[in-house]
Amino acid sequence: MRVANVFHAGDGNLHPLILYDANIPGELDKTEEFGADILRLCVEVGGVLTGEHGVGVEKRDLMPVMFNETDLKQQQRVKCAFDDKHLLNPGKMFPQLHHCAELGRMHVHKGKLPFPDIPRF
Q1: Are 34 and 76 contained in the same domain?
Q2: Which residues contact 115 (CB under 8 A, 6 or more apart)?
Q3: Where are the alpha helices (DSSP H) in 68-107?
Q4: Do 77 and 112 belong together in one domain?
Q5: In the predicted model, what is the mean pLDDT of the chain?
Q6: Which candidate, 12, 15, 63, 103, has a CA 20 to 30 Å from the CA of 51?
Q7: Least confident window among 38-42, 56-60, 83-87, 114-118
Q8: pLDDT value of position 106
Q9: Residue 1, CB half-sphere, CA atoms under 13 Å: how many?
Q10: Burial level of 111, CB count in 10 A (0-12/13-18/19+)?
Q11: Considering the entire predicted model, what is its pTM?
Q12: In the chain, how many domains are there?
């Protein structure tokens, strides 16, 4: 696949622009996996998953590449301390949500958990 790497010269923050044709079946999945491979390599050689943009849905599932389970749980505790109602970037950043007994409160509305697409313990 063709990729153009745009980056910040001062801090090395990389923004790969992967070129693909969305009209070709399977091309988007192939492109997303290529992007994940780039991020894995960045971490492997001492870089990080993200710079100034933060972790969203695209990088969420790659958090365990850089952080172990203890790191991720601690990050979730910090987020809970500042966002106990889960209003800030809900469903983003963490690849696995935890039950309220493990990290704090989780609001269940009419018997439905928020963000059912994210795996839970």
Answers
A1: no
A2: 90, 91, 97
A3: 69-82, 100-103
A4: yes
A5: 80
A6: 103
A7: 114-118
A8: 55
A9: 20
A10: exposed
A11: 0.69
A12: 2
What ranges make up the beta strands (E) of 8-71?
A: 14-19
CA distances from residue 33 to 43, 57, 66, 92, 102 in whole angstroms, order as listed: 15, 14, 17, 19, 32
For residues 83 and 26, what is the distance between their CA atoms, to the nearest angstrom? 37
Backbone φ, ψ for residue 97 (5° rounding): -85, 160
Structural domain boundaries, residue 26? 2-47
Identity of the amino acid at 116: P
For the range 80-84, what are the long-range contacts, defined as Cβ-Cβ under 8 Å and sequence gap of 24 or more?
80/104, 80/105
pLDDT of residue 19: 95
What's the residue count for the chain?
121
Tokens 């500042």: give the residue: 82
Residue 94 near residue 72 (C-beta atoms within 8 A) = yes
Q: Both tokens of residue 98?
A: 């935890």
